[in-house]
Methyltransferase domain-containing protein
Amino acid sequence: MNTGYVHGYSAVEARRLDDQAGVLADLLHSDTAFAPGSRVLEVGCGVGAQTVRLAQAGQGVRITAVDSSARSLELARERVAAEVPGAQVEWLQADLHQLPLAEGCFDHLFICFVLEHLPDPLAALTALRRLLRPGGSVTVIEGDHGSAVFHPDSRYARAAIGHQVRLQSAHGGDALIGRRLGPLLREAGYRRVVVTPRTVYADDGRPALARGFTRNTFVAMIEAVREKALAAGLTTAADWDRGIADLRRTARPGGTFHYTFFKGTAVRQVVSGGLGQCHRPAAQPLSRGRSAAAPGRR
């Protein structure tokens, strides 16, 4: 089975992520807040779209942002420096399964649109739990393509979405993972699990959402896997193009589009014996592999 980021790392995908973060900021982050000076670990920071929101979510927040892509980290650094001057962010290029970070060093763990791309999200959540201090919290945000409902309805459009779901599954991911967040967090050993749906609904009365989310985020994401769907023999060019055209129609006057994201929060259980201390391992110091922003540009 192939694993990887099914959407790719193109400039077009970077713009799509920017559009997505901007239009969904209030929906996903209206209740995101950290205590002053909190240590936050963001896993899978991508191009920094969510990092910007995290840096604005509390005074003096100290963020460690991790991604496996050097290019994404470069774009993320540039974005944070431009949009949140003075943000305290350290950058780490690493695999989330092999993070050179000590146990219990973070107050909060933030994972957004990452689990859907992993072949074993339960193993990832379980392994990452050790990085939280006892009593520390985690936020996980994921979508669920099965929640897409639109007008006018179209079997071609529904088929195109289904093809993207199958391609992501072939890459080891799960585009329907939103519905599983609660069970995954509980099975991974977190406590006080709460999952809330965050619904996007776009119609004539919400033109910004119709443009920013329906067309520039969701339809653009489906459209981007055209060649992969054709190469896999999932559809014909004519049927695919008809499906994309019908999806675009939902963003025009008279059309509607509905999609649900799921935001899960939980905590690492406090064990007897106190909270313990954070010790940086001598063999793999926290600075290894990092490229912190220069003073005045962080």
